[in-house]
Amino acid sequence: MENRETATVTELKRNAPGSLRQVRDLPTLPEVYQRLVAVLDDPRSSVWDVERIIRQDPPVTAKVLRLVNSYLYGLRTPVTSIAQAVRTIGYDELRRLVLTTSVISLFHRERESPLSYRAYWEHCLGTAVAARQLALALGEEHPEEFFVAGLLHDIGKLVHARCFPEQFCTALTMAARERLTIEAAEEKVLGISHAQTGGLLVYYWGLSPIVQRAVAYHHAPLTGDLARLSLHQHVVHCANIISHALGLGASGSYRLPPFVPLSWELLRLSTSHLPGILTATKKEFTQLVTTLFASDAP
Length: 298
What we know:
CATH architecture of the largest domain: Orthogonal Bundle
Helix content: 55-70%
CATH superfamily of the largest domain: Hypothetical protein af1432
Number of strands: 0
Order of helices and strands: HHHHHHHHHHHHHHHH
CATH topology of the largest domain: Hypothetical protein af1432
Strand content: under 5%
Number of domains: 2
Structural class: mainly alpha
Number of helices: 16
Distance between the termini: 46 Å
């Protein structure tokens, strides 16, 4: 297993053009999330340690409490502190909410960016929610892992927009003009796709290998002997298609990405599961976006 994981990262590094490998201003994982993970991984820590860490970032604190008190959890009594939030939703859910709010805040609106900030994140949130709903349908023990992989699946686009704005604009124009997928146009112009760049970024962030693979291969999940290495990449692949099909946000693409039927087959879900998954995805997506962007202008 370890060799295969190392091979994945090695391949991404080898394929990355020198211009990307030399970039020094790649965004780092938000400090509040890094410190939270360290505390959660420490068996000696308490709920008060968790609250102290998150309270040091007031915007994240406010959004986490807003999310916990939203219709997502259907609480009868409002939660007023992070400690209460932990007792109510648990550490895994808290970790997911902190990563979501802090990563979205990490990439601020950039005037020159060719991507619509709001529409981009809505697409990513749609994919994240669809991935979580698929994981729930599969009976997975940690559906929040699938949510995180879905949330970050297109993060490479933001890296391209920030580090190579002119080339990325050229790739988007080429994709629209020639009716190409964005990743095909990126490979022609930049020599690397957003999926590969995103895989490298989450590797440097120290996220788990299953998230790395899900991000790096969300358009072309591994097949053959490696197909069952991790369901995350197949779930995210299907979730991305669902987000596109439901029109949740906009990824900047002018055509639906290719669908790999094997991914759906590996999930072993029948088509009868789809209506419930789609309905739950739309409902959770609406609640999540409404809460996260409540203070944003429409």
